[in-house]
């Protein structure tokens, strides 16, 4: 089968450029600006082994650079960075380091924990110094509801002689309560505890729902003002969680990462990759819409608030440049922020993450510090966002992108995944192919004479099963629907049996696949999933899946079919995106404009007949993949010329840029 190369694929990234973008303010009523979307993640991983640090460890003692353990105070420069970028929310202790985090080892005076001098009290002091609300994530694979209630007592109860944990707080140097409101019941609990061997475990959704209810009731018995979020995922996890705990859940926690690329060979070229991402990033609004629809289908017509406590682009590579730290990555995150601002379901959002480590938007533990493009993006966005959000009407040139690397197609007319399906089965007749790697004799797999696959899980070992597969050729840029009948025996505390369809080169190589919902039923159930291949795909792999263990049992899969269909298509994307806000007194307007063109300036006309004065600044660089790793001013904010006309304000947006405009009326 002939591949479509990158030069040919680039032809699918058509631009209807050359026309001026016109922006007017629509009739929708103004709404308050939700500044909680400018949250961040502050890492404070626990020194679980209490290894000697000398009191100067970048993580355990310095909080990745935000804390000075010698002065026992926030680093002034880091606190200044946070304030200047409007960081309203800080999350602790960060990501998968939370799974076994013991908060009782994270309190006490620094002298009592000489090998962990940045812990909970220091984090809260950093929040206080920067004006940020704290969000505290509770361990999900350790700890009890009673211990969570003690944490609330430590944080929020008065030191009145009746609350021993409040007395502990006072002994730590803080007599007045911290009055923390926001808590999370775990972090991405559905993907397991990241332990190896016999300690490996993935919590089933039923157990998590029980745990959530117990924790919430215990915590609110101490302080009814606290709010506890529940981890949001998809499919079986969400369904069980909504059925068993939905009415009690204060807010849900999805994590949103756009894209998926880990290649270090520059293939596809960054220009091609980022055009795909700039087209597909509008998937965030579709995801938020699907979250609400799922809640409404579960009997929650008003939905529930969403705290997106991690978001970012999803690039895990270094060459030819670390795209996660690039101008293009910053613009993807700017567009995500724009969508959050205009969605009333979003309670808060936290960029992953603030300082140093792999993703930090600030680099350095001492001067000279390095402001990465994502930091400068958030600082500019914050500066040009006023009090009331207005809805713009944008008439901009459109561009097409083929999708892939974790984002949908965005070209021409929008279509929903699965439309235009052809009924012919394209899967060649073949036997299941079996792998044995990592099964250690704990799984038996075989194919019956009628083609039915049977997989026997001998015990509750936490095995990620993907070891039975079928292969087929594929043409890129089409959609493929896989269907099958599935049933199970046992597996009560395991994830359900499912199918996965993805790039034939494998998930580890491409990070590209789609999966059906898991099944746990003695009766045959029909499952399906739609997958859009990458633009250079020439084969597909269909795999039997069980994501995590917990119970012994069997799964059966039969009648696997693959049909060609239309992929999900967001439709052609506007070249320019806009956020518009107004001051409370109505005397100022502000615009935040994203130009997604990689190589052309875009003329813009802002229809403002009463403009008296205007100024603009723009964040841009020499290319979409530019970073500040070598040159701190490679991607920088610079003044931009504007022109006042009788009925409008006009300006030229540089290629690949984020521009802030303030207009006095």
Automatic annotation (TrEMBL):
Leader sequence segment: 1-19
Disulfide bond among keywords: no
Boundaries of every Alpha-L-arabinofuranosidase C-terminal domain copy: 309-657
EC numbers: 3.2.1.55
Gene3D superfamilies, A to Z: Glycosidases, Golgi alpha-mannosidase II
Keyword line: Carbohydrate metabolism, Glycosidase, Hydrolase, Signal
Listed GO MF terms: alpha-L-arabinofuranosidase activity
Record has Signal as a keyword: yes
Quaternary state and interactors: Homohexamer; trimer of dimers.
Name of the protein in its database record: non-reducing end alpha-L-arabinofuranosidase
Organism, scientific name: Victivallis vadensis
Taxonomic lineage: Bacteria, Pseudomonadati, Lentisphaerota, Lentisphaeria, Victivallales
